[in-house]
Structures are given as structure tokens and as C-alpha cells.
Amino acid sequence: MNRILKTTVIAAAVMSVAGVAQARDQIRIVGSSTVYPFASYVTEEFGATTGNPTPVIESTGSGGGLRLFCNGVGEGTPDITNASRRMKVAEFERCEENGVTDITEAKIGSDGIVLGQSSENDVFDLSLEQIFMAVAAMVPVDGELVENPYTNWSEIDSSLPDREISIYGPPTTSGTRDAFEELVMESASEELGAYGDEGYTEIRSDGVYIDAGENDNLIVQRLSEDTKAFGIFGYSFLEENTDTLNAATIGGVEPTPEAISAGDYPVARSLWFYVKNQHAEEVPPMYDYVDMFMSEMMIGDGGYLRDIGLIVLPEQEREEWRQAVADRTAMTADVLK
What is the DSSP letter of 182? Predict the structure, then answer.
């Protein structure tokens, strides 16, 4: 190789390495669409106040984010993933199989899942059973399980409006979908007693339930166009759109921060993120971002994230999680069982 060519190759290699190092100064975050508005606020604040590059954040859904997170360690894999439900044992085991063996878990607050609609409609009250009967693939009719025949709310219960059932909801990769299946579908089917010992979670696929993708903002937009439909999404999106949306009460309980925090609202869940500690040396700003997210300034009673819809954890629980994250506590599978 002549000297000029050799020098060019070496220079290109140095520039390539420098580019990679610079890129790894930028934290990469994936995961839940529900946690996305909160994490986005923190990333913007982090970029504006610390002198570090603003982290890159992508809304992939909880399941999609955890899949990417658990793909391995190193370039091309995310540093942090957000989740609107807790990591599953199978996901933790997949992480371990792929060499992701040092993970810190962080609980940031709570959220309620709402059935939102255009504010052109009057609010009406639904039970978990009525919601189940609207979206389940198979429902009990005259003592037998049959394909869901209901197309109007009034067919489920004559006290409900004579209005077509149309529901925009999250896909199977979404933590909101997981939580909806557990908190609504499983709970209601167990009470109905027609499905055996296990809860029934299969959602109908005949067009009544419409898979609207991972981005909850798109569901909100669709409700402004399809004004007779409902949408399933996190409370924070209702909070941000009270001028155009309202939400059904469930079991007579309105989705409010107080009702969600107290556990009175029946469709509430916890919000999380997961940190890949093995990336700490390669991505130096990572822990500074994590500590900012867990600070009182963000998740406390007077924190910024409360203003955009985060349901704040009790003070003692906040402090316990903050300390666990500050200690970079490595999670184990037994905490998920």
C-alpha cells in the first residue's frame, strides 16, 4: 500500500472511531408510548441544562423496547428502555441469555388507562364487564361462548347509548395493551365465570377493535375525526387534551390523579424504566440522566412531570426507588415473580 493511500485509510479509521465515540455520548432510549411524554421532557431538560447531547428517544412500545434492550450489549443496542408495565420473567431471562446481566429497575409513578372519546359526547359510565363484552373475541350468550355479536353499546346493556362500538386501541407490543388485558379482560372474565379458571384476554379482530399503533397521540387525533369512537390510552394523554376529550367513568369512578393514586380507579398501572449498567462506561452521561429523571424536580409532588399527567408515588416509595437507582441496584428474576 503506498504511503498516501495508507495515510488516507488510517485517517478514515480514526474519524470513524471518533464518530462512534461521539455518538455514544448520546444516550439511546426506547420503549413505552405512555412513558414517552415524561421521558421526552427529561431528555429535553437534560440536553438544555447539562451540556450533554439531548438523548435520542424512540417510542417503540413496552414490549418492542424490551426486546431491543435485551438484544445484547454494545453498539446498536439501547441504553435505557421505558415500560408501562413491569418487565416479565421471560424478558429478563432473554436479557441474561444475550449477555445483558446488570440491569437497574426504576419505578417512576403511576398512570390510569382511560377510555377516551370526543368531548362532543356526554360522559357515560361503564363497568369492567361491559367493556369486556365490547372487545372480547368470544362472549357468553345464553350459557354458551360464541363469537362476539355486539355491534352497539345498547346491545350489551339497554341503559347504554344506542351507539356503534368502535374502539381504537394499542397493539400487542404495547404495555398499555398488556395492562388493559390484565386489569380489564382478566378481571372481568374471572367474575363472569364462563371461561374456566384462567382469565380470558383474546380481543376481537372483526374491525370493532382497531389496532391504532404505538403512538397514543395518533389515537387522540383519530377521536377528533371519528367522534363516536372510543380510544384506549394513558391518563396523561387525556390530561393534555381536556379541551377536546373526555373519558368514561369506570364503575362510577372518574379517572383523576387522586383516584388513580388511591387505587379507587380500577384500571391503573405503574410506570418504569430499565437501565443497562454495562453501558455506563461507554455512555458516560447515562447515570446523570437517570438521576435527573428520579429527582424530586421531575417525579416529586411539585415535580415537572406531575404537571403533564404523571401520578406521583407516595414519598416513602419514591425515596426507596430513588435510592435503589442511585445505588445502581442490579435486579434479579425473583423480584418479578
Answer: I
Angstrom distance (rounded) from CA 267 to CA 111: 9
Three-state secondary-structure class, residue 301: coil
- Distance CA(280)–CA(289), nearest Å, equals 11
Close Cβ partners of 318 (under 8 Å, ≥ 6 residues apart): 296, 299, 300, 312
Calpha distance 258→248 (Å, rounded): 16
Look up residue 278 and give its three cell numbers.
Answer: 454495562
* Dist CA 152 CA 208 (whole Å): 10
pLDDT in tens, the chain (337 residues): 444 444 444 444 433 333 333 347 899 999 998 899 999 999 999 999 999 999 999 999 899 999 999 999 998 999 999 999 999 999 999 999 999 999 999 999 999 999 999 999 999 999 999 999 999 999 999 889 999 999 999 999 999 999 999 999 999 888 889 999 989 999 999 888 888 777 899 999 999 999 998 788 889 999 999 999 999 999 989 998 999 999 999 999 999 998 998 889 999 999 999 999 999 999 999 999 999 999 999 999 999 999 988 999 999 999 999 999 999 999 999 999 8
C-alpha torsion angle, residues 293, 294, 298, 299 (rounded to 10): 130
Contact between residue 77 and residue 253 where contact means Cβ atoms under 8 Å apart: no
Q: Measure the CA–CA gap between 43 and 157, rounded to whole angstroms.
A: 46
Residue 153: what are its φ and ψ, rounded to 5°? -60, -35
pTM comes to 0.78
Helical pair 36-49 and 286-293, crossing angle rounded to 10 deg: 120
Please, are residues 33 and 176 in contact by the beta-carbon 8 Å criterion? yes
Cell 406521583 maps to which residue? 312
